[in-house]
Amino acid sequence: MLGIPTVADRLIQQALLQVLSPVYDPTFSSSSYGFRPGRNAHQALRQAKQYIARGYEWVVDIDLEKCFDRINHDILMGRIARRISDKRILKLIRRYLQAGVMVNGVVIERYEGTPQGGPLSPLLSNILLDELDKELESRGHKFCRYADDCNVYVRSQRAGTRVMASIERFLAKRLKLRVNRQKSAVAKPQDRQFLGFSFTSGRWLKIKPSVKALKNVKHRIRKITRRSRGISLLQVIKELNAYLGGWLGYYKLVDTPTTFRDLDSWIRRRLRCFVIKQWINSCHTRFEKLTALGVGNKSACGVAASRKGPWALSNAKPLKVAMPNRFFAERGLICLQDRYAYLAKIM
User: Fold this and answer.
1) Which residues partner with 103 through β-bridges?
2) pLDDT, tens only, 11-25
3) CA 94 to chain centre
4) Distance CA 64, CA 172 (A)
5) Residues in contact with 221: Cβ distance below 8 Å, sequence separation at least 6, in sequence order
């Protein structure tokens, strides 16, 4: 659950963050990438790719069960007190940890966890999980951690099973945290997802969007292009551009251009379907619209009289002639494949 601080508390937490971050961040592991200045998810993916290319072809994918909600306050405060001696600061941090949350007008007390939504919470979680990083480093493991999402790369399934069991014991004993067994596994990196990405199999190792990421983007596009919205094609394209621009900004790290080519094709088909649905469901209207877009009378008549649904018709040749790629480009639709090619040149 999110615990959004008041304006005054956000100001104080931000001040604490700006003072404490320079103290702790330089000592954090180089394999920790989440919520740190100058570090991001793309760096974690590139590092993971290097490990796999070097022969660490099995991953111990560790997902902590409700990590932020189950951080033990006493253990966390003990780690902070090792460096911060000012009792006023320690008391203030503990009060923020124990601050209740208001749900439907009722204050609920908090006995564990860091409230997600405050500026200070990411740093506090990194302070605690840094102990996990140091343990993995002492064992010589190759790993990448982003917040509570940690991947350890090993050379064999047997080694991965052993590492998973030992880390689970370490987390339970030292940090009082539990591994979510349903979301954690020892597997090939190609069978798992990390920060919304996955990897290709075969001779050439490449980064690609995960199956779940592609499913989510298509679900969002379907919502934007659904018929019941009652808006124009230009407005739909404007909303698509706003969403797809941000999505591509995150997934520009992908090494498989065909992903964007196929998604472009699918988006244009969704838009053709959207346009067809907006035409009044009559043969005469469809015929007029198609001929106005340059389709021959014979082809237009065949589509207009068809009993197929809008989705099936959107892939018919006359509809592609009426609404080619240029049709949508002239109306402002961004081409993911072209935009990706441009970003790849400047990266």
Assistant:
1) 106
2) 999 999 999 999 999
3) 31
4) 11
5) 240, 243, 267, 270
